[in-house]
Amino acid sequence: MIVVPEIAILDPNTLASLGLRIILEEMMPQVVVRTFSSFEALIDDTPDMYAHYFVASQIYFEHTPFFLERRPKTIVLATSMLSLPVPCLDVCRPQDALVHDVLHLQHYGHQMMHRPVVVSHSDEARELSPREVDVLRLITHGYINKEIADKLNISLTTVISHRKNITEKLGIKSVSGLAIYAVLHGYVEVDSI
What we know:
Radius of gyration: 18 Å
Strand order of the largest sheet: 3-2-4-5-6
Number of helices: 10
Number of domains: 2
């Protein structure tokens, strides 16, 4: 069984919440992401069960004491970098930069390990073979199938087969999602992407 965290997104902007939810779920398919349009909706839920709170700046400022008590778990969503006692995420950056920023937040101490939810998956079913890891690394560095085949001295068909196996095992189809998985699992360094 895999233990996964839950993340709360608090933002009255439905489109922004859904966009961030999709990015987070693509980055970390094992997490449960819940969205709340107001602070009151979070309070009606179980507010202390979340590993992280991604909070719109106006909600943060209206309820600062609540979030300061949860400082290590709070990330403020802002349109520019603010000087706050909690980390901020500039939501106006391009998707790749935003993903990179979220990875850095995770890498530097925002580990997802508070009040986990248990999901029944087999770790062995998701484990990549050494050759699949090689292919994954090259995918994250932007190589296309033909280039991967040439670098690994395997056929194009074999590369395509490995890519298919990787996406089936991980449940991740996009290159950016695969890159994030590779970083989170130590297959590549975040600065090399």
